[in-house]
């Protein structure tokens, strides 16, 4: 393999770095369920997300939502009302990312090991 071909894969701007960045964005037990719930519904309140994902704690839900927001996949809208009303939705980048996740699901379904 030529050096130029390797740089496409390796190095700070190579494919490996970009894929690693994306995998880090979705790492966390609940990030994928959050993304798929927000894909199914245009926007959701925190309480609805928590109710739809039994087993997630409020602390972890808040942490994952903040990380997804920081990574540009989710947007948080605070309506400035009392009692507090906050809704989450996918950003354009989050919606653009969903076909990638759906393709990963299809890949998994087609390449099941041990069946």
UniProtKB/TrEMBL annotation:
<keyword id="KW-0805">Transcription regulation</keyword>
<keyword id="KW-0804">Transcription</keyword>
<dbReference type="InterPro" id="IPR036388">
    <property type="entry name" value="WH-like_DNA-bd_sf"/>
</dbReference>
<dbReference type="GO" id="GO:0003677">
    <property type="term" value="F:DNA binding"/>
</dbReference>
<dbReference type="InterPro" id="IPR002577">
    <property type="entry name" value="HTH_HxlR"/>
</dbReference>
<protein>
    <submittedName>
        <fullName>Transcriptional regulator</fullName>
    </submittedName>
</protein>
<dbReference type="Pfam" id="PF01638">
    <property type="entry name" value="HxlR"/>
</dbReference>
<feature type="domain" description="HTH hxlR-type">
    <location>
        <begin position="9"/>
        <end position="115"/>
    </location>
</feature>
<dbReference type="InterPro" id="IPR036390">
    <property type="entry name" value="WH_DNA-bd_sf"/>
</dbReference>
<keyword id="KW-0238">DNA-binding</keyword>
């Amino acid at each position: 393999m030529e050096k130029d071909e390797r740089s496409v894969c390796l190095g700070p701007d190579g494919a490996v770095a970009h894929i690693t960045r994306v995998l880090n964005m979705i790492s966390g037990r609940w990030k994928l369920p959050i993304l798929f719930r927000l894909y199914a519904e245009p926007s959701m309140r925190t309480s609805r997300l928590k109710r739809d994902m039994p087993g997630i704690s409020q602390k972890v839900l808040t942490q994952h939502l903040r990380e997804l927001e920081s990574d540009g996949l989710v947007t948080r809208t605070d309506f400035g009302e009392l009692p507090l009303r906050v809704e989450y939705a996918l950003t354009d980048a989050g919606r653009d990312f969903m076909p990638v996740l759906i393709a990963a699901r299809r890949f998994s379904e087609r390449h099941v090991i041990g069946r």
